[in-house]
Amino acid sequence: MKRMLFNATHPEELRVAIVDGQKLLDLDIESAVRTQRKGNIYKGVVTRIEPSLEAAFVDYGAERQGFLPLKEISRAFFRNFSPATPMAQVRIKDVIEEGQELLVQVEKEERGSKGAALTTFISLAGRYLVLMPHNPKGGGISRRIAGDERSELRDALADLAVPTEHSLIVRTAGIGKSSEELQWDLDFLMQLWKAIESASTEAQSPFLVYQESNLIVRTLRDYLKSDIQEILIDEVDIFERASRFMNQVMPHNLVKLKHYQDSVPLFSRFQVEHQIENAFSRTVKLTSGGALVIDHTEALISVDVNSAKATKGSDIEETALQTNLEAADELARQMRIRDLGGLIVIDLIDMTSSRNKNTVENRLVEAVKNDRARIQLGSISRFGLLELSRQRLRSSISESNYSACKLCDGTGSVRNVSSSALSFLRILEEEAIKENTEAVFAELPVDIATYLLNEKRHEVNLLEARLGSRVVLIPTPQLQGSQSNIQRLRSEDIDASGDLPSHTIRITPAESSEVQYTVASRTRRAAVNIDQIDPSPPPPPPPQTLAQDVDKPGLLARLWRSIAGFPTSVEPAARKNPKQSTSAHPNRSRRSSGRRSGSRPTVNRDQERARPAQGGETSGQEKTDQGPTRRRSRSRGRGRQVRGGSDRSPRRPPSSRRSERSTTHESTPQTTGKTGTEG
Questions:
Q1: Distances, alpha carbon 276 to alpha carbons 478, 564, 615, in Å
Q2: Which end of the chain is less congested by CB atoms within 10 angstroms, N or C?
Q3: Per-residue pLDDT for 605 more than 70?
Q4: Own/partner long-range contacts of 141-149 (Cβ < 8 Å, ≥24 apart)
C-alpha cells in the first residue's frame, strides 16, 4: 500500500516521503534556510553581454547573476531584428542591449560557483497540462505516453480552445482525462498567466513576479497518482493548506487526506527515519552483503559496486550477477531519493558473460521506469563501466544540506603535519626574500608551529641569518589543517607598529574583494501567488463502469444454463456485434467477397497509408502497423516471396507478374501475402 507522508513538526524543515509499506520510494526536503528558485519567474535586467559565449548575464535579485544563452531568448525580446534573418546568423550583441528588462524563469539552480541558468521561454505547470506562453512552436504530449493513450490525448487536445500564440504539453497525469477536465486546467493556467503578465509591469526590476508552488502543492500536483491510497499529514497548518488545494483542484481525492495525530512520530511509525539517514550516507549496504559507494565530483557522480560479504551465488560469475542485479534496483531507488543528477558512472563487478551483462542492463532499465526524471542509459563497456545521464529535478540532498569542509576544502583528506610544515617554510622564505622585507609574521595551527619551532628550528634560524629578516611564528588554536595567516612587514610598517611582543601580535586576514550579497536584503514577496487565482470548480471525473460486471449473469442463471445445456457465458465482443463473423480466416472471406462483387475491399487506415503507390514492395510502415498479417516482399527483378508460409502459390511466369503489377488496387488488395488467386 502506497502512502504519501508529510512531516512538518519542525518549522525549519518540511519533509515529504512516498512509501510502499515500509520501504522509502521517494523523498523531498524543503528547508527554511535554503529556498528553491527553480521554476520562479523574475523580472530581470541585462547587466553584461558576453559575445564570446553568445550569452548575457542577468541580475534577477539573487546572490549571483543568472546565465542566459542566446538560444533561450525569445525573438519577442530582440531589438533591431528582422524576422527574415536566420537564427544561425544572429549575434547576441546585435539584438540584446545592456539595461534591457526581460521576463525570465529559473531553469537550473545555482550549483557551486555557477549561477542559475535562465530562460525566457516560460512554462507553467498545472495538474494535467503545461502551458507555454508565447511559444507556438512548442508543445506536444509527454514522451512517457504512447500507444492508444497518446492517440486519445491527441484527440482531446483538438477539442481544447488554445490561443494560437500559446502551446500546451500534456502530462502523464492527463491520461484518461476528458476534454472538460483538460479545458478546466487550461483555463486555470490562462488566469495565472494573465496575472503574471499584468504584475510584471507594476514594479521596478529586478523583482520576483511569481514563485513556484511550495512543497505541499508541488508534491500533490506532481506525485499524487491513483496508486497512492493515503495522504498523512502530522501538522494542522499543513493539513489545512493541502485541504484547500485539493478541494480546489482535485476534490475527488479528498477522501485520501488524513490528519495524523498519534503520539508516535509519523516517520518512525513507517520505519522511514533510518532509511533517510542512509540517503545521507556515502555507503549504502545491500541485503546480500554487498555495498554501493557513492562519491560526488565536479564533473560526475561515481558509483562503485562492491561485493563485500556477498556470497549469494554458486560461483564467482553468479555472485557478481546477483550482486549487480540487486545494486541496479537499489541504485534506481537511491537516485530518486537523493535526486542525483547529471552524468553518473557505475563501476559494476566484472562479468565475463555477455548474457549476464544484458540481464543487468535490462534490470536497470526496468528499475528506472518509475522515475519522473528523464534518464539516458548506456551499455556496459569492456571495462565494466555503465554510464547514464539523469535530469536534475531539484538540488540533491547533499547540496541542500551539506557544506564543504573548511579543513580539507571538500577533498575529504588533510595534509599531514610534516608536509604542511615544509610547505609553510617555503612560503615564509618566498615572502622574506622579497625586497624591503623587515619581518614576516605567520599565524599557524598549533601542531605545525610546534613542528617548525622544534624539528625545524635550525632551518628557521638559517633563513633569518641569510636574508636578514625576522620570522615570527605564532601558534593559533583557532586555525586547523592548512589554514594560516601570513603578513609581510616593511620597514615603515615596523616603525609604525613598534616592537610588540609576539604573543600580542594579531594578524588581520585580507578582506575579500568580492561584493557580498545578503539574502534578506534582496528577497521580496512574489507579486503573484497561486492562492490569488480563484478558478471555477473542476468538472467531475467520468464514471467508470465495467461492461463485464453489468452483463454478467447471476449464480442461478448460470446454474440453469449449465443444466439446460446452454453456454454459461457469452463473449463481450459477440454481445456487442452479433453479426460479426467467427470464421478462422476473416480476411480470406473478405477477399473472396471483394472479388465476387468487383468492388474495392475495405481496409483500415494504417493499411491504406501503407499501400504501395504502384503495387511494388511493401513499405516499412505496413510491417510495423499490420502485425501478424502476412506480408509480401520482392527481390529486385526476381519476385521472390518472403514470409508467405505454406499457403504460398506456385511461382508464376514473369509475364503474368508484370501484368499483375500493372493492375489497379481495386482488383487485388495489398493486405494479403499471396500473389495468385485463391483456389
A1: 34, 64, 64
A2: C
A3: no
A4: 141/169, 141/170, 142/169, 142/170, 142/171, 142/172, 143/374, 144/172, 145/170, 145/172, 145/175, 149/175, 149/176
For the cut 60, the answer to whether the pLDDT of residue 55 exceeds it is: yes
Domains of the chain with CATH codes? 2-35+213-269 (3.30.420.140), 46-210 (2.40.50.140), 282-401 (3.40.630), 417-498 (3.40.1260.20)
Phi and psi dihedrals of 148, rounded to 5?
-65, -35
How far is 203 from 664, CA to CA, in rounded Å? 71
The answer, yes or no, to whether residue 598 has pLDDT greater than 80, is no
Give 615's contacts (C-beta < 8 A, 6+ positions apart). 660, 661, 662, 663, 665, 668, 670
Q: Which helix (H) or strand (E) holds 583?
A: none
Task: Give the burial string for 29-59 (b: 16+ CB within 10 Å, else e).
Answer: bbeeeeebbbbbbbbbbbeebeeeeebbbbb
CA distances from 413 to 254, 366, 416, 483, 604 (A): 52, 38, 9, 14, 69
Q: How far apart are CA 411 and CA 404, in angstroms?
A: 9
Grid coordinates 512531516 are at which residue? 7
Distances (CA, A) of 164 to 132, 137, 152: 11, 10, 22
Secondary structure class of 14 (helix, strand, coil): strand
Distance from C-alpha of 335 to C-alpha of 340, rounded to nearest angstrom: 5
Q: What average pLDDT does range 481-504 have in this prediction?
A: 75
Q: Which residue has the cell 499501400?
A: 611
- Write the DSSP assignment of 58-111 as a string of letters: EE-SSSS-EEEEGGGS-GGG-SS--TTS-GGG--HHHH--TT-EEEEEEEE--B
Angle between helix 179-199 and 148-158 (nearest 10)? 60
Query: Tell me, what DSSP letter sits at residue 243?
Result: H
Report which residue type is found at 390: R
Beta bridge mates, 474: 443
Reply yes or no: is the peptide bond before residue 206 cis, omega within 30 of 0.
yes
- Kindly give the pairing relationship between strand 41-50 and strand 101-108: antiparallel
Highest mean pLDDT pick, 170-179, 378-387, 664-673: 378-387
Give the number of other Cβ atoms within 10 Å of residue 128's Cβ: 25
Global confidence as pTM: 0.67
Alpha-carbon distance 463 to 342, whole Å?
51
| pLDDT tens-place string over residues 286-313 | 988 889 999 988 889 999 999 877 676 6
Contact 618, 612 (CB under 8 A): yes
Cα–chain center distance at 671: 43
State phi, psi for 219 to the nearest 5 degrees: -70, -45
